[in-house]
Amino acid sequence: MTENLTTRTSPVSTTDAPSRRRRFLDGVDERLGLKGLQYGVPEHANKLAYSLGGLSLFTFVLMVVTGVVLTQYYDSSPSRAHQSVHEIVTSVTLGKFVRGLHYWGAMAMVVLVGLHLLRVFVSGSFKRPREGNWVIGVVLAATTAALFFTGTVVKWDQESIEALDHNTEIGKLLGRFGFWFSPKFSGISQLGRLFVAHIAILPAFFTVVVIAHLLLVKYHGMAPSPFRKSSQPEPTEPFTRHLARLGAFAMVVLGVLALLAVLAPPRYGPTPVAGIEVTKPPWPMLWIYPVENLVGVSGILWATVAIIGLLFIVPLLDRGPERDPRRRLPVIIGGAVVVVAVIALILFAAFQPVASHVGGG
Ligand code: HEM
Questions:
Q1: Taking residues 4-23, what's their average pLDDT?
Q2: pLDDT of 300-325, one tens digit each?
């Protein structure tokens, strides 16, 4: 009997199976056009530096997935928010891990977006005809910052309530344009509205803008490597191979984030107290703190406008066709000065004593 089965099944598995598989794949391709993904991309696009945009996108997807889980248990009413986060960490199955992944994923996204921006800057990939996509990238970076800020508020501990107070003050500075940041805007609390921004408005906006960004990358193709000397066209590899490498990088990122979520879960502060200032902003926003100490809350507004404005005009500041960073030294040194200044301000602020800015208290 066993022998019968073997003799009857073995020809099927050795000769028919591959052709069935082939026919299945061809059938899927006929319907979904997957072979269209095998277009060529230049070899240099497979390097880690050129995969940072894809990895930024991966962390965004991770934030959406973990965020959807957290949203099932989070209560955005100011009286319940803190307790609901406490319950996520203590009572929800895998809640502490998912919150840790969301927290470390946010840090990773900020770092990856920053590194991607620097890679594009240093390799001169924003130059003609990609200036428009650089501007779209700046909008994505600003949206990432807004997602990070609103996330800081929704966890609703002391850091959060102080961040919200600053937000209200900035709303006042914006005059009639700051109406949305006022506690009196509607019957829904500021926390409730910032939560909607965090889970719906900003992610939806990010998704639309990132689709435009990716369509433009596809339309223009990857910018040539700034270091390529040969006049011969660069060899290409199928985009599907690039996706496979990107997937491998993404799994490493996921592994590191999962380890951090287990070994270093985010802190969870006590119930927030209104009207006091005893915390500093999280590190990605910490560079603004010394500016705020110097000129008050308006410093947050001016520093943010200045850095975003400066990023927008990069294609105007560096217009020639040269991409090689060694031949664009003034611009590269200018960029390095900004990066070093931001890092120095973060380190300086980390050692500064906590100061009070809102309400003069
Ligand atoms: C915030 C999330 C972002 C995502 C998900 C994203 C995604 C991507 C991806 C997948 C690519 C192609 C592969 C690569 O170059 O890594 C790319 C290219 C590009 N990105 Fe982004 N990006 C983001 C932010 C930015 C920012 C902040 C800037 C600049 C201000 C920017 C400017 C560009 C430009 C100019 C290209 C074309 C580069 C080339 O042709 O070599 N992107 N982006």
A1: 60
A2: 999 999 999 999 999 999 999 999 99
Q: Residue 361 corresponds to which tokens in the numbers above?
A: 């208290």
Amino acid 274 reads A
pLDDT one-digit tens code per residue, 189-246: 999 999 999 999 999 999 999 999 999 999 999 999 999 988 888 999 999 999 999 9
The domains of the chain, with CATH numbers, are 41-225+235-277 (1.20.810.10)
Q: How far apart are the first and last CA of the chain?
A: 88
- Residue 268 tokens, joined: 């969870």
β-bridge pairing 236-238 and 40-42: antiparallel
Question: What three-state secondary structure class fits 223?
Answer: coil
**Do 85 and 36 meet the contact criterion of CB atoms below 8 Å apart?**
no
Closest CA to 355 of 299, 308, 306, 302: 299
* 290 touches 345 (CB < 8 A): yes
Residue that is written with structure tokens 């287990």 in the block: 262
Q: How far is CA 350 from CA 91, 233, 312, in A?
A: 33, 49, 28
The pick from 130, 135, 217, 220 for probing ligand 1's pocket by mutation, whose C-beta has the most ligand atoms within 8 angstroms, reads: 217
CB atoms within 10 A of CB 131: 14
Token code pair at residue 116: 């991607």
CB 176 within 8 Å of CB 191: no
Q: Can you tell me which atom of ligand 1 is nearest the CA of 311?
A: 30
Lowest mean pLDDT, pick from 147-151, 196-200, 229-233, 333-337: 229-233
CA dist 55 and 60 (Å) reads 9
Quickly list DSSP for 77-91: STTTHHHHHHHHHHT
Helix or strand run (H / E) with residue 41 = strand 40-42
The DSSP secondary structure of 200-236, one letter per residue, reads: IIHHHHHHHHHHHHHHHHHHH-PPPPTT---SSPPPE
Cis peptide before 129 (omega within 30 of 0): yes
Ligand 1 mean position, distance from CA 302 (Å) = 26
Measured from CB, residues less than 6 Å from any atom of ligand 1 are 50-54, 56-57, 113, 116-117, 120, 125-126, 130, 133-134, 137-138, 140-141, 144, 210, 213-214, 217, 222-223, 311
